[in-house]
Structure prediction request, 181 residues.
Amino acid sequence: MANLDNDIKEVLVTKDELQKINERIGAQITKDFEGKNLLVVGILKGSLYFMADITRYIDLPLKLDFLAVSSYGSGTTSTGSVKIVKDIDIDLTGYDVLLVEDILDSGRTLSYVRKMLSARGANSISIVTLLDKPERRVVDLTPDYVGCDVPDEFVVGYGLDYDQQYRNIPYIGALKREIYE
Ligand code: IMP
Ligand code: MG
Prediction:
């Protein structure tokens, strides 16, 4: 992993901290969704590791599905035009949907996804994001569960990419500016 670590300016969330976040949020969701009809929907590809880890701390019957959207290309800022690349397979009627996102930045992606899904007959739609950059918000969107806030830096690791790379770093780090500038 030496090569990948070299491109990281600063570690923002360690492996241990990620583990604690997953335990805390998993326990909270277990409490909040007791007796509900839980469908956990991961937004690919960034939520891959977070989804896999938090769901192991949700002690309830649940179903898993995935949604893939593209809004970024290879740049570092959201374009606002969101495209569904892979839709959910399960009919949402009657489910309490929990959308799992890696990071909330402008909020455009999740706001679009929530609007699109809310027309499909779900009981409720909630949002959990591992990371939040609250000062970057452009549209009004408040997640129900947040792992932690991060500063306005481009971050990678634990599922988050830059140009499809760095997803397999086991912690969250700020990417050196010279990599993307
Ligand atoms: P938004 O639509 O501006 O909220 O952007 C959200 C999406 O942009 C996330 O799902 C990420 O895929 C991507 N994104 C935003 N900030 C970062 C970052 O710092 N690192 C990696 N991906 C990011
Ligand atoms: Mg994403």
Notes: The domain at 15-153 is CATH 3.40.50.2020 (Rossmann fold). The pocket of inosinic acid (ligand 1) is lined by residues 46, 71-72, 78, 101-109, 154-156, 160 (CB under 6 Å). The chain has a mean pLDDT of 94.
